[in-house]
Amino acid sequence: MPRFLCATCSTQFPDSAAPPNKCAICEDPRQYLPPEGQQWTTLEELRANHHAEIRDELLGLLGIGCEPSFAIGQRALLVPSAIGNVLWDCQALLDDEIVEAVRSRGGLDAIAISHPHYYSTMVEWAHTFDCPVLIHEDDQEWVMRPDHAVETWAGETHALAPGLTLLRLGGHFAGGQVLNWAERRMLLSGDIVQVIPDRRFVSFMYSYPNLIPLPADTVDEIARRLEDCDFDTIVGAWWGRLVPDGKGAVRRSARRYRNALEGCLS
C-alpha cells in the first residue's frame, strides 16, 4: 500500500489505498496550494524521476539534496558529533546512493528538524537508520505520519551532544527550533532565522510564501535568545545559504524589522 507525499511540501502520510483528502500543512496559511490544486506522489515515483545531490556545504558539513528540485527544495545536513551523526532537517528523496553515503560516514544517531515544512519523509529516514526524530512538542500536531521513532522534547533547550544543542525559538512555528553547533560556531537555522539574498541581514516571518510578518516583540525575543549562543556563521536551508557575520546580522535585522513595522525605515 503506498504512502503518499504532498508534492507541494513533500510531507509523507501513512499507508493508504488512495491519496488523503488534503494536506493539512499546505492548507495552513504558512504554506499554500498551487493553482492546479493538491497534487500527490510517492517516494517510489520520486526515486524514478530524481537523483541524489550529495556534496559538502562547508568543510566537514555534508549536504544532502536532490535534483531536480522537489517541493520546497531544501537540503539536509549531516552534522558529526561526539554521539555520532545528526541529520539536520530532512528532504524527501531517500535512495540507495544516499543510504550508502550516510552509512559510509557512520550512519545516523539522531534526526532533528527545524519545523513542519521539512518533516517530509522523516519516518523513512528514521526506520532506515534506526534512530529517533527529535521535534519540539509544540509542533507535534503537525506530524502527519505518527510513528514511535518521532520523539518530542519540551522546554527551551535540548542538548544532543557536547556543543550541539537544539533551541526552541518559535516564530515561524511555535516549536520552531535551530541547532547550535558551538564546536564549529555555527547556527543551523532552517526557516526559523531565514538567510536572504543580502547576507548582511536575515529575516523572520510567520509565512514566507504568503508574506505574513511576525510581531516585532517575537522577533526581538528570538534575537535576545540568540545573543547567548556561540555562533558566527548561520547556515540556512538551501545550498549556499550562508551568513558569515551571523550574530551581527541577527542584531541588525531585528532592529530593521521593528523599524519597518513601526514605519521608521529610511
Plain-language structure description:
This protein has 266 residues and is an alpha+beta fold. 21% of the residues lie in helices and 29% in strands. The chain is built from six helices and 20 strands. The strands form five sheets. It has a seven-stranded mixed beta sheet with strand order 4-5-6-7-8-9-10. Helix 5 packs antiparallel against helix 6.
Integer-rounded radius of gyration:
18 Å
User: What is the overall pLDDT average?
Assistant: 97
Oligomer: single chain
Count of DSSP H/I helices? 6
State the strand order across the main sheet. Answer: 4-5-6-7-8-9-10
| Main CATH class | Alpha Beta
Strand content: 25-35%
What is the name of the CATH topology?
Metallo-beta-lactamase, Chain A
Our count of domains comes out at: 1
**Second-tier CATH architecture:** 4-Layer Sandwich
Strand count, sense and barrel status of the largest sheet are: 7 strands, mixed
Q: How many strands appear in the DSSP assignment?
A: 20
The CATH homology group name = Ribonuclease Z/Hydroxyacylglutathione hydrolase-like
Shape: globular
Helix residue percentage: 10-25%
Distance between the termini: 58 Å
H and E order: EEHEHEEEEHEHEEEEEEEEEEHEEH
Query: What are the segments in which pLDDT stays under 50 over at least 5 consecutive residues?
Result: none
Structural class: alpha+beta
Helix and strand topology:
Elements: E1 3-6, E2 12-15, H1 24-27, E3 40-42, H2 43-49, E4 51-58, E5 61-67, E6 76-79, E7 86-88, H3 96-104, E8 110-112, H4 122-129, E9 133-136, E10 150-153, E11 157-161, E12 164-168, E13 177-181, E14 186-188, E15 194-195, E16 202-203, E17 205-207, E18 212-213, H5 216-226, E19 233-235, E20 242-243, H6 246-261
Parallel strand pairs: 7-8, 8-9, 9-10, 14-19
Antiparallel strand pairs: 1-2, 1-3, 4-5, 5-6, 6-7, 11-12, 12-13, 13-14, 15-16, 17-18, 19-20
Helix pairs in contact: 5-6
